[in-house]
Design brief:
single chain, mainly alpha
Length: 192
């Protein structure tokens, strides 16, 4: 059921972005059209994972991811909410949280089950925080490269924008990493 719901929700988002891409290209708004094309690609990621791999994220992570895409791509870029000033920072905070939860999900799927009973709470904390921070860094590299090679203005605020985004990503990851570390420590106490 979860797999079907992931496929349906992702497909709906891809269709929504495809309709927006056609609409904006027909109305000579190439920036909004290109954002919608990016939305098709980003929205297809859970769809591709659900259809072609065994790596499945749980439903709350996928729904959070799709809500994040709506907030960043549709509200932020297409409707212009990034012009509000605080929306960009808020979206980076949310992305740090989602990335941290995704890191936890990957960690739980990739480690050997018996290793999980002996793993350090500090390791879980550091892995989760690092995963979220790395996601923020990779995004800022994408923004920088887009600005340099394609003449875009994704880093409109320059260094201040980049650092604010990275701090927000890290704070979001830090909150979830702290909770994950505490949860792991409690699990280990109960196991011993």
């Amino acid at each position: 059921m979860n797999r079907k719901l992931v496929i349906i929700l992702s497909f709906m988002y891809v269709l929504f972005m495809a309709a927006l891409a056609v609409y904006y290209y027909l109305h000579a708004s190439s920036f909004k059209g290109s954002v919608a094309i990016g939305g098709i690609i980003c929205g297809a990621i859970p769809l591709i994972l659900a259809l072609f791999t065994k790596l499945q994220f749980n439903l709350p992570i996928v729904i959070s991811y799709l809500i994040f895409l709506v907030g960043s791509q549709y509200f932020g870029s297409i409707l212009g909410w990034y012009g509000l000033g605080w929306w960009d920072t808020f979206m980076h905070l949310v992305s740090g949280i989602i990335l941290a939860y995704s890191g936890i999900a990957l960690y739980e799927r990739l480690i050997h089950r018996k290793a999980g009973d002996e793993i350090s709470a500090w390791f879980v904390f550091l892995f989760t925080l690092s995963f979220a921070a790395l996601g923020g860094v990779l995004w800022e590299i994408y923004e920088f490269c887009s600005d340099q090679f394609f003449g875009m203005n994704l880093q409109g605020g320059g260094n201040k924008d980049t650092m604010t985004d990275l701090i927000a990503d890290t704070v979001g990851g830090l909150v979830i990493a702290t909770l994950a570390g505490i949860r792991t420590k409690r699990k280990l106490k109960k196991a011993h």
